[in-house]
Amino acid sequence: MIQLDNISLSFGSREIFKNLNWPIKDGKRIGLFGPNGVGKTTLLNVIAGQTHPDGGAVIVPPSVTVGYLPQEVGDSVSANTVVEEGMTAFSDIQALEREMESVREELGRVSGGSAGERKRLLHRLDAVQTELSTRGAHTVRYQTEKLLLGLGFETGDLNKPLSTFSGGWRMRVALAKLLLVRPDVLLLDEPTNHLDIESIDWLEKYLREFKGTVILVSHDQYFLDRMTDTIAELAMGRITEYAGNYSYYLEERKSRHRIQKSAYENQQRKIKDTERFIERFRYKNTKASQVQSRIKALEKLERIPPPPSDDPAVHFKFPEPERSGKAVLELSGFSKSYNAADGSVVTVFRDAGPLLISRGDKIALIGKNGAGKSTLARIAIGTEPFEGERKEGYNVSVTYFAQHLAESLDPSNTIIEELESQAEARNETEIRSLLGAFLFSEGDVYKKVSVLSGGEKSRVALAKTLLSPRNFLVLDEPTNHLDIQSRNVLIEALRQYKGTFLVVSHDRHFLDSITNKIWYAEKGRIVTYPGTYSEFRYHQSLRERMDPESTAEGGTPAGNGRRVKYDEAQNKPAESGEFRRLEAEKRNRLYRELRDRGIENMENWEELSASQLRSALTGLEQRIRDIECNISEVEAFLADPDNFRDGGRSAEATQKFDRMHGELKKLYERWEAVSSHLEKRVSD
Questions:
Q1: Which whole-number Å values give the CA distances from 36 to 434, 436, 443, in the listed order?
Q2: Own/partner long-range contacts of 448-457 (Cβ < 8 Å, ≥24 apart)
């Protein structure tokens, strides 16, 4: 267990931590949470040993290894290829391999030398080879490639120089190296920032199987809910733990604050009553002893601290946009290619579409990094050339946001001046409210744009975009650099928005809260799924279970090696009857297996429907009650000494008791697994 003991740290006159104590228990998955600027990243740096506190100690057992993934990688880039850089995680194995080559070279030089020297070198070579075999050196490249592919790299990327990739992709390589080292404690600072949705799913699966301790900082509510069993709230330089995920933390925090507020107010009333008594009778001799008693009681009183103020309720509502025609945007069948730096032609889309955006559509555009999401967003607003036709509907006006728009801000303006230039009938109070929602304090609004960080500029650009939206919004990664509170403000505003929007994002909670249609970009095509992100995930999981090896290359797998082809005009399964037939066959097969074998004897029980699982749980509970009742009867029989006179009967009863206990354990284990699976399926 790692122990933070009385940690104190200040930067200049600003005190970050004062006598902070935190025992970090082994095997926990901890979400380190708190408002921006409270010191979460600094605390991770302290635990990792990269920042030394002014006072106190970080106690890490000698046998414990700590791995740390910061928010950003440094500017220096290795000359290695992607896979070579990933393999540097195995530096000890690489050192042994270099030693083996050195020994072989030395053997070649002493081929005619003394037998004793050759024997020594051969012995050393054998020892190094044995050590390499023991450490699994032959699987190093395989492990590295497998992990990099899981994080979103394509096979063709692995032998490209790392320097040709953006900071986001280099961050993925840094994450791969960290995971390959397999430390006992993982410190992850915003690990999902540079990952697409599929890579986040992969990381979640990896972390579920990770046996060590995980401490992560994230503004991804969905990720926090699925990955954490403890929330450590950092506030006012102290850690308060909540035994549950983020959603539990929100409810429990409200409950604790209510209790603390009540206790604080009760104590304050008693203090005031005592102070009034002291003041009233201070100079009366007959009350002197009582006054002194109350003064001493006040001096010894352990004061309850005032409850933390609730998060400020910030609300922002879009102005009512003009009404567009029913058809907002139509794209014919289209293709898009470009020439890469090495002279090759990269095809982003091939015969994709046609696509239709109707008034009131709230569309999430998702897919792997590199699938063309941002390209399609630019095609939608008409700034990206492509092969095909784009037709804008009647009275459609477009507002577009992307991260690069931050560079178009006027560096000589203050933040508030920059927004006032775009405000269109918005008063200063509304502008300040919006800036507050996007993490700018009252004093920040007078900062010059020129002194802002990249993330701050991006938030200003987003706020500026939202002040005067049109009836068609196209938003490319709008939640980057926003904390959870700011994201919730944006969610509420988009829920109330009367127009149409297309949004690119990897924040699954954000998407689930605002969208009614999914565009999934894959293999140069766009497949449309009506409904929310959770409904899309459900259809995806069905598809993967029916045909795990297939992809959506022109269609969705239908199982048994078949493929449901898509009607490109409607983006609907053309063989929906066949799909339904296969689904019905699968349900019937699982039902027969459940009826004949019982869920406790099924290996594929996770494929059962939610209703079948609930029914099976009820059956398990009844069988558990029956067995417990039978066990009680056998226990009563065995508790009577007279029954041991018949050796045969007592032996039979003992065997029956052991058999029922084994069956009961099996039923309980399956009941717990099914219950947990059902809860997770609902949360997914």
A1: 17, 12, 16
A2: 448/411, 448/412, 448/413, 448/414, 449/409, 449/410, 449/411, 449/412, 449/413, 449/414, 449/415, 449/418, 450/411, 450/412, 452/415, 454/406, 455/480, 455/481, 456/481, 457/406, 457/407, 457/409
From 469, 438, 474, select the one nearest 456 (Cα to Cα). 438
Beta strands in 493-635 (DSSP E): 500-504, 517-522, 525-530, 555-559, 562-567, 572-573
Cβ atoms of 442 and 428 closer than 8 Å:
no
What sign has the CA pseudo-torsion 636, 641, 643, 646?
positive
pTM to 2 decimal places: 0.69
Task: Tell me whether residue 333 is exposed, middle or buried, using C-beta atoms within 10 angstroms of its C-beta: 0 to 12, 13 to 18, 19 or more.
Answer: middle
> How much of the chain is helix, strand and coil, in % rounded to 5?
50, 20, 30
Query: What does the pLDDT average to over 3-13?
Result: 91
- Encode pLDDT of 365-378 as tens digits: 999 888 899 999 99
Q: In the structure encoding, which two tokens stand for residue 178, read together? A: 């960290």
The arrangement of strands across the sheet holding 327-331 comes to 355-358, 327-331, 390-392
Q: 521-545: b or e for each residue (b if 16 or more CB lie within 10 Å)?
A: bbebbbbebeebbeebbeebebbee
Average confidence (pLDDT) over 133-161:
86
Phi, psi of 332 (to 5 degrees): -70, 180
Task: Report how many helices (DSSP H) and strands (DSSP E) the chain contains, helices first.
Answer: 20, 23
Residue 461: C-alpha distances to residues 19, 495, 618, 629 (Å): 39, 21, 54, 67
φ, ψ of residue 356 in degrees (nearest 5)? -130, 130
Q: How far apart are CA 515 and CA 502, in angstroms?
A: 9
Q: Give the β-pairing of 55-59 and 500-504.
A: unpaired
Instruction: Please give the structure tokens belonging to residue 440.
Output: 């700018």
The pLDDT value given to residue 288? 84
Q: Which two tokens stand for residue 390?
A: 């784009």
Question: Which string of DSSP letters, residue by residue, matches 128-183?
Answer: HHHHHHHTTGGGHHHHHHHHHHHTT--GGGTTSBGGGS-HHHHHHHHHHHHHHH--
CB atoms within 10 A of CB 212: 18
Asked if residue 217 lies in contact with residue 231, where contact means CB atoms within 8 angstroms, the answer is no
Lowest-pLDDT range of 84-98, 212-226, 249-263, 543-557:
543-557
Q: Are 240 and 233 in contact (CB under 8 A)?
A: yes
Residue 427 neighbours by CB distance under 10 Å: 10
Tokens (6 digits) for 476: 């490319």
pLDDT for residue 680:
72
Q: Please, which residues have CB within 8 angstroms of residue 578's CB and are 6 or more apart in sequence?
A: 558, 562, 564
- pLDDT tens for 116-139 read 787 888 888 888 888 888 777 778
Which tokens hold the place of 606?
């996770």
Q: Residue 655 in 3-state DSSP?
A: helix
Rounded CA-CA distance 24/19 in Å is 16
**Res 426: pLDDT:** 66
Question: Would you call 6 helix, strand, or coil by DSSP?
Answer: strand
Contact 527, 566 (CB under 8 A): yes
Q: Are 32 and 185 in contact (CB under 8 A)?
A: no
Give first-to-last CA distance, the chain, whole Å: 32
598 contacts 608 by C-beta, under 8 angstroms:
no
DSSP class of residue 448 equals B
Single out the residue of 72, 62, 65, 57 nearest to residue 23, CA to CA: 57
